[in-house]
């Protein structure tokens, strides 16, 4: 049984996100900040009359706030408890078929990555980190 | 067939509900033709409908009632009390049968013939059937339904919301790419249709509270008759609209409160006359909208709630300890009515008084995000106020900006909007926080930008203050960079990550398609601790925290810099005049010498006054200090409720006295900051040091004295509490006295308990904890 795997780049690393977790991939232009919210909440964005909570993946991984490139950015939309979230990624590369045989990472990961990682997957010739998009929403607080 | 029956049940029930008020009104004025017609129409319709179904009992009852009423209409007989009662009994029986039809249970009462017989002229006066209505309403509450499921309404509502949002986006796109006029005309039409539809669907969820109030006259009449009371009911505000679901949720609590008011509140006529009240009790129920809440007040002029009796019961039932019960304020005692298992009724009646009641009322109201408040004046009545939110998905809002971003504020929470920096608004900075006086009303002023941690932007001329009222009724002003527009916004719940900020109530999309955060005025009030008094819940039953007397005497005086200030009279010992030469800047602070004592002086900053000044001597029971001022203004009641200062300091807040704002002096802070080295009027501990030791006398002595000791020569004859001696010096100590030995090197030798002589902390702690505490200043 195969499933789809979304390959994206987050903080310079190529990662895989299970297709079942992804609602869609969008381009986000303007983000309205939400003052007094958690550091990894980049703000709100409106896509097709929906208000998305935008997550800065770099901040969620404790890699510092992502550089604000301005302009249009790729985002992966995931739905959690009925609320849509947009995970900001550097880029979305491809969608591939994925034979579900992830291997547990043998290497020691940085704490931020460790929190969201589900394992490693082989996509073509490369080895990718498979991440749990929902874990990304919790941000650094989940470490506690 | 099933559908038709359900239709019949729902229709009959609706008519019954609408009829409730009519019947009572008819009873009061039997000659009123229009009421009679209304009731006639009801029984006639029911009878007609029964023809379709096999419902012989309902048919017989409605037929009999119709006959009698037709006779009255044609003038064949008069409508007297007896007739009205018997018609009522028939209508109740119909209601009961309709309920039974829906639940599928057999109706409890069987004696339809008796009722029909009572309708006939010759029949003996009918004993009013007391159990009928009670049973009927009990059955009704279990099976109440509306003909459209609320779920469906919700789905329609959210569908329309999405439609509005989609329309807004389309409007934006059309503006960006102007095209065909025909397209725009078509869009306008679609847009109008959507607006109309939205209005209609919004209204389907809204119901006049009258639907709830309509049942009250009948209920009050029945209860009053049963309990032998005379009650005049006044209902007001029936046109207030409330969400349908909300209405259902307050039905039972309201019913319960009304029952309680008649059963326990309103006295028998004879008792009322004795107490100098009109024989008929007055029950007033009114609803009004206040901000984003609906207020429903139920007030009676009965005997009130005996707070002391409740407190006794509560302590007997183990809900509060006896000590706690004694310390409760009157309002807190009355609020005990909401505790489970308490009731003021001396005896249990069928109507209420079983101790399951007000706690359930409160739980039900709180479940829908509301509050119940009770006020009682013993002997003159009780007023209960239900505050329930008006939850709606489309709300009128004001858009404002702060730090370059747009936010929305629910318009219902807004009292007024004023331009900053005009004559109508005065802003003062008091004790580190800002207070705005808007049209003689003093409110705390918050900056939205500061609250959100962003920079204020925009022209000062654009700045506005929005005066807001939170759900807890705190009023405050929020200063914003500018005010944009009134808009109708579709509010969507925000994600938990956004709600975690604790400031927002939801999100929406503006006309430009950008997300807008909806601010929550209540959350902002608690975020900024406006009012500073904490939550009401804490006060309720907070037996462990006895409230201070709310009003004590305060001394209103003019400070040296001409400000009116207030201090609790209790801490002022006496007022004296001192010459300027009694005041010296000495040992790091201003001190005043008074009759052989030296007291720290506060109230005049760091400046030595040039002329004679007045001082008040303040005492905290142990130490004293002097506070300089210019003159006494008045003695006024000291109100505990004040706007707290942002940071602790000499001034702990601001309150109203003699019609103006005055700063309130914080004695606690004063003693903490100034009272350190104050001499107590009692005896000070004595510390003995060798007189010959120059280091001790010049270097050490001031520290010991600052720690509150009187220093004497250890070679003298004076008694002492502590002896300080050099580690290597001789000791002439008296047994039983503490000895502190000081060594001159920092290193310790084994088993040496001496203290390095420059180790200030160790030395002070050795001099004793109380002294150390006072030595902080």
Describe what you observe in this structure.
The complex is a heterodimer of chains A (144) and B (777). Chain A has 144 residues and is mainly β. In chain A, 11% of the residues lie in helices and 49% in strands. In chain A, a hairpin with a 2-residue loop joins strand 1 (2-10) and strand 2 (13-18). Chain A is globular and about 40 Å long. Chain B has 777 residues and is an alpha+beta fold. A six-stranded mixed beta sheet of chain B has the order 10-14-15-13-12-11. Chain B has a six-stranded mixed beta sheet with strand order 27-19-20-30-29-28. The longest helix of chain B is centred in the N-terminal third of the chain and has 27 residues, at 2-28. Chain B is elongated, with a radius of gyration of 38 Å. The model of chain B is unreliable at 122-145, 346-356, 531-551, 677-682 and 769-777 (pLDDT under 50). The chains are: A mainly beta (144), B alpha+beta (777). Chains A and B meet through strand 4, strand 5 and strand 7 of A and helix 7, helix 18, strand 17 and strand 18 of B.
Topology:
The complex is a heterodimer of chains A (144) and B (777).
Chain A: E1 2-10, E2 13-18, E3 24-28, E4 41-47, E5 50-56, H1 57-60, E6 73-80, E7 83-89, E8 91-99, H2 111-116, E9 117-123, E10 126-131, H3 133-138
Parallel strand pairs in A: 2-10, 5-7
Antiparallel strand pairs in A: 1-2, 1-8, 3-6, 4-5, 6-7, 9-10
Chain B: H1 2-28, H2 33-50, H3 56-73, H4 81-103, H5 112-119, H6 131-143, H7 150-176, H8 181-205, E1 206-208, H9 210-213, H10 216-227, E2 231-236, E3 241-243, H11 244-265, H12 269-274, E4 281-290, E5 293-300, H13 307-316, H14 322-327, H15 330-335, H16 358-367, E6 371-377, E7 381-389, E8 394-402, E9 405-410, E10 414-419, E11 425-430, E12 433-438, E13 441-447, H17 448-452, E14 464-469, E15 475-480, E16 482-490, H18 496-499, E17 504-509, E18 515-519, H19 521-527, H20 536-539, E19 551-558, E20 564-568, E21 572-578, E22 583-586, E23 589-594, E24 597-602, E25 613-619, E26 624-629, E27 631-639, E28 643-644, E29 651-657, E30 660-665, H21 667-674, E31 686-689, H22 694-706, E32 710-713, E33 722-726, E34 738-743, E35 755-756, H23 760-766, H24 769-774
Parallel strand pairs in B: 2-4, 9-18, 13-15, 20-30, 24-26, 31-32, 31-33, 33-34, 34-35
Antiparallel strand pairs in B: 1-3, 4-5, 5-7, 6-7, 8-9, 8-16, 10-14, 11-12, 12-13, 14-15, 17-18, 19-20, 19-27, 21-25, 22-23, 23-24, 25-26, 28-29, 29-30
Helix pairs in contact in B: 1-2, 1-4, 1-10, 2-3, 3-4, 3-5, 4-5, 4-6, 7-8, 10-11, 11-16
């Amino acid at each position: 049984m195969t499933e789809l795997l979304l390959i994206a780049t987050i903080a310079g690393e190529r990662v895989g996100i299970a297709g079942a977790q992804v609602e869609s991939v969008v381009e986000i232009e303007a983000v309205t900040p939400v003052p007094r919210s958690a550091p990894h909440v980049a703000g709100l964005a409106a896509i097709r009359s929906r208000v998305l909570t935008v997550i800065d993946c770099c901040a969620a991984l404790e890699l510092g706030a992502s550089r604000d490139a301005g302009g249009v950015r790729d985002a992966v939309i995931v739905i959690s408890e009925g609320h849509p979230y947009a995970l900001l990624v550097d880029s979305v590369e491809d969608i591939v078929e994925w034979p579900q045989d992830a291997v547990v990472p043998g290497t020691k990961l940085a704490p931020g990555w460790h929190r969201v990682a589900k394992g490693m997957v082989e996509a073509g010739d490369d080895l990718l980190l498979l991440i749990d998009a929902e874990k990304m929403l919790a941000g650094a607080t989940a470490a506690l | 067939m099933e559908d038709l029956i359900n239709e019949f049940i729902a229709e009959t029930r609706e008519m019954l509900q609408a009829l409730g008020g009519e019947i009572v009104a008819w009873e009061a004025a039997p000659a009123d033709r229009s009421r009679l017609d209304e009731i006639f129409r009801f029984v006639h319709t029911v009878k007609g409908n029964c023809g379709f179904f096999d419902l012989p009992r309902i048919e017989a009852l409605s037929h009999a009632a119709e006959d009698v009423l037709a006779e009255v209409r044609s003038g064949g007989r008069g409508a007297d009390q007896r007739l009205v009662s018997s018609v009522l009994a028939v209508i109740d029986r119909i209601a009961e049968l309709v309920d039974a039809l829906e639940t599928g249970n057999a109706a409890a009462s069987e004696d339809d013939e008796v009722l029909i017989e009572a309708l006939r002229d010759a029949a003996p006066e009918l004993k009013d059937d007391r159990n009928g209505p009670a049973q009927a309403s009990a059955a009704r509450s279990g099976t109440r339904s509306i003909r459209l499921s609320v779920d469906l309404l919700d789905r329609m509502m959210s569908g329309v919301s999405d439609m509005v949002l989609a329309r807004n986006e389309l409007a934006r796109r059309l503006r960006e790419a102007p095209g065909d006029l025909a397209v725009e005309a078509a869009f306008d039409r679609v847009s109008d249709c959507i607006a109309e539809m939205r209005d209609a669907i919004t209204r389907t969820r809204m119901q006049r509270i009258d639907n709830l109030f309509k049942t009250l006259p009948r209920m009050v009449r029945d209860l009053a008759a049963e309990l032998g009371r005379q009650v005049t009911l006044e209902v007001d505000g029936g046109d207030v609209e409330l969400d349908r679901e909300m209405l259902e949720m307050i039905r039972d609590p309201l019913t319960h409160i009304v029952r309680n008011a008649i059963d326990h509140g309103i006295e028998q006529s004879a008792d009322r006359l004795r107490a100098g009240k009109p024989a008929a009790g007055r029950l007033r129920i009114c609803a009004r909208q206040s901000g984003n809440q609906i207020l429903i007040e139920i007030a009676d002029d009965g005997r009130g709630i005996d707070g002391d009796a409740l407190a006794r019961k509560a302590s007997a039932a183990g809900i509060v300890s006896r000590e706690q019960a004694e310390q409760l304020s009157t309002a807190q005692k009355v609020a005990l009515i909401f505790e489970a298992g308490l009731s003021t009724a001396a005896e249990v009646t069928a109507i209420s008084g079983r101790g399951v009641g007000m706690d359930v009322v409160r739980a039900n109201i709180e479940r829908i995000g509301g509050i119940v408040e009770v006020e009682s004046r013993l002997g003159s009545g009780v007023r209960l106020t239900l505050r329930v939110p008006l939850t709606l998905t489309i709300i009128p809002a004001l858009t404002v900006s702060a730090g370059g971003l747009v936010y929305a504020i629910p318009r219902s929470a807004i009292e007024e909007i004023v331009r900053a920096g005009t004559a109508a608004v005065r802003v003062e900075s008091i004790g580190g926080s800002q207070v705005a006086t808007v049209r003689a009303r003093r409110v705390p002023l918050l900056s939205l930008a500061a609250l959100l941690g962003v920079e204020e932007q925009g022209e000062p001329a654009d700045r506005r203050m929005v005066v807001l009222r939170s759900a807890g009724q705190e009023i405050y002003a929020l200063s914003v960079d500018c005010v944009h527009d009134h808009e109708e916004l579709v509010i969507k719940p925000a994600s938990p990550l956004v709600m975690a900020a604790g400031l927002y109530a939801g999100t929406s999309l503006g006309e430009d398609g950008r997300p807008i955060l909806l601010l929550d005025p209540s959350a902002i009030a608690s975020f900024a601790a406006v009012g500073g008094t904490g939550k009401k819940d804490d006060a309720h039953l907070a037996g462990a925290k006895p409230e201070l007397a709310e009003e004590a005497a305060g001394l209103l005086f003019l400070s040296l810099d001409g400000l009116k200030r207030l201090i609790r009279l209790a801490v002022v010992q006496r007022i004296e005049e001192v010459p300027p030469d009694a005041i010296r800047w000495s040992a790091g602070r201003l001190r005043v010498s008074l009759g052989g004592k030296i007291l720290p002086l506060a109230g005049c900053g760091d400046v030595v006054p040039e002329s004679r000044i007045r001082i008040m001597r303040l005492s905290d029971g142990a130490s004293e200090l002097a506070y300089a001022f210019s003159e006494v203004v008045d003695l006024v009641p000291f109100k505990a409720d004040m706007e707290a200062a942002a940071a602790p300091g000499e001034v702990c807040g601001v309150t109203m006295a003699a019609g103006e704002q005055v700063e309130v002096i914080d004695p606690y802070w004063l003693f903490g900051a100034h009272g350190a080295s104050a001499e107590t009027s009692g005896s000070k501990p004595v510390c003995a040091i060798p007189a010959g030791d120059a280091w001790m006398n010049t270097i050490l002595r001031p520290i010991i004295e600052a720690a509150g000791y009187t220093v004497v020569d250890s070679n003298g004859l004076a008694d002492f509490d502590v002896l300080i001696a050099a580690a290597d010096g001789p000791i002439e100590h008296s047994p039983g006295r503490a000895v502190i030995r000081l060594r001159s090197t920092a290193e310790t030798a084994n088993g040496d308990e001496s203290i390095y002589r420059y180790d200030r902390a160790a030395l002070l702690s050795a001099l004793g904890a109380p002294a150390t505490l006072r030595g902080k200043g």
